[in-house]
Structures are given as structure tokens and as C-alpha cells.
Specification:
By secondary structure, the protein is mainly alpha-helical. It has one domain (14-62). Helices cover 59% and strands 6% of the residues. It contains 3 helices and 2 strands, in the order E-E-H-H-H. Strands 1-2 form a two-stranded antiparallel ribbon. Strand 1 (3-4) and strand 2 (7-8) form a beta hairpin. Helix 1 packs across helix 3 and helix 2 (33-39) crosses helix 3.
Amino acid sequence: MTQMTNRRCLALHIEVAENQVQAFAQFLKRAGWSHYRQLAIDDEEAYDMQTTAERLRHAIASSGFAPR
């Protein structure tokens, strides 16, 4: 684990079926600020959610699933 702005960072490894990855990649492409904000308790949490989603989207794209 590394420290990033006084927060612990975790490395995750998961196994997911290809169709589920494709569906989640589509979801991440379509999700916008208003979706995160609607589900968050405040702006900070919404930004954290959005940042994490973008990191996941990038990791998924790096493994070959980048919806257009």
C-alpha cells in the first residue's frame, strides 16, 4: 500500500466475465457528474466516486475494453 494525500491506496485484482466487463465499461462511459452527485452524500464523495470510476475505466480500456 502507498500513501496518497494521507489516504491508503489499495491494489485490486478481480476476475470478471467478459460480458460483465463490457457492460460495466458502457456504464462508466455513460455515467456523469450528476449520477455520482445524486448518489453521494456531498460533493467530496461524488468527486471521489468519479475519480475512482475514471481509474477503473482506464484500467478496463487498458485491458482491451474501450467502448466508443
